[in-house]
Design a protein that fits this description.
This protein has helices spanning 9-14, 34-42, 66-76, 118-127, and strands at 46-51, 54-59, 80-86, 91-96, 101-105, 111-115, 132-134, 141-144, 147-150. The protein contains four helices and nine strands, in the order H-H-E-E-H-E-E-E-E-H-E-E-E. The protein is α+β, with helices and mostly antiparallel strands and 163 residues long. The protein has one domain (6-162). The protein is globular. Helix content is 22%, strand content 28%.
C-alpha cells in the first residue's frame, strides 16, 4: 500500500515515483518509524515546484539533521527523523514517530507544523497552504513567511498541541 495521496499521484509520477517503488533506507532509520515508509517509497526523488510557495522537495535522509531539532525532540518526547529538504535547502522536513510532519528553517531559527500526518502535510505543501509556526516553552517569538509570530497568537503552537 502506498503512502502517496491519490490526488497527488500524477504529480509524483512526473518526478519518477511509481506504485511499488522501493529504495534502500539508511540503517539508522527504524523500520517501525513512519519515516522509513516515506524514505523507502519517495527517497532520492526531487519534486520541483510543487506549489507557488515551494521551490522543491528533495526526499532524502540526513543522519546529521537531528541536531537542528534536538530541543523539539525533547519537548515533544518523540523521535524525529529527517525525510526531506524543502525550498532548495532552506528548510528540512521531519516526521515524528506519531506521523506529524514538522519543518525547520535552515536559514534562521524557526520551526513549523506542516501537517498532522504525512499525507495531509504533502497535500498542504502542494496546495500552497502555510505551515503553523511553533514555539518552545522558552521562546517568545518566531519569524516565519516574513511575519513575526508571538506567544499567544492563535496560529502559534507549542509542544502541548501534539498531545
Amino acid at each position: 500500500m502506498s503512502i502517496v495521496p491519490n490526488d497527488l499521484r500524477d504529480a509524483l509520477r512526473r518526478a519518477g515515483w511509481f506504485e511499488g517503488r522501493r529504495v534502500t533506507v539508511h540503517t539508522s532509520v527504524s523500520v517501525d518509524h513512519p519515516a522509513y515508509a516515506v524514505l523507502a517509497e519517495l527517497g532520492d526523488l526531487i519534486f520541483p515546484n510543487p506549489s507557488p510557495s515551494v521551490t522543491s522537495i528533495a526526499f532524502r535522509y540526513d543522519k546529521d539533521a537531528k541536531e537542528w531539532m534536538a530541543a523539539w525532540e525533547a519537548a515533544l518526547a518523540m523521535d524525529l527523523v529527517s525525510i526531506a529538504e524543502q525550498d532548495d535547502g532552506h528548510a528540512a522536513l521531519y516526521l515524528t514517530d506519531r506521523g506529524h510532519m514538522i519543518g525547520c528553517s535552515l536559514v534562521h531559527p524557526a520551526c513549523f507544523l506542516v501537517g498532522q500526518t504525512f499525507g495531509k502535510a504533502l497535500q498542504a505543501i502542494w496546495s500552497g497552504e502555510r505551515a503553523r509556526p511553533m514555539l518552545l516553552p522558552d521562546e517568545e517569538e518566531v519569524i516565519l513567511y516574513g511575519n513575526r509570530f508571538r506567544r499567544g497568537d492563535p496560529v502559534v503552537i507549542g509542544p502541548d498541541a501534539f498531545v
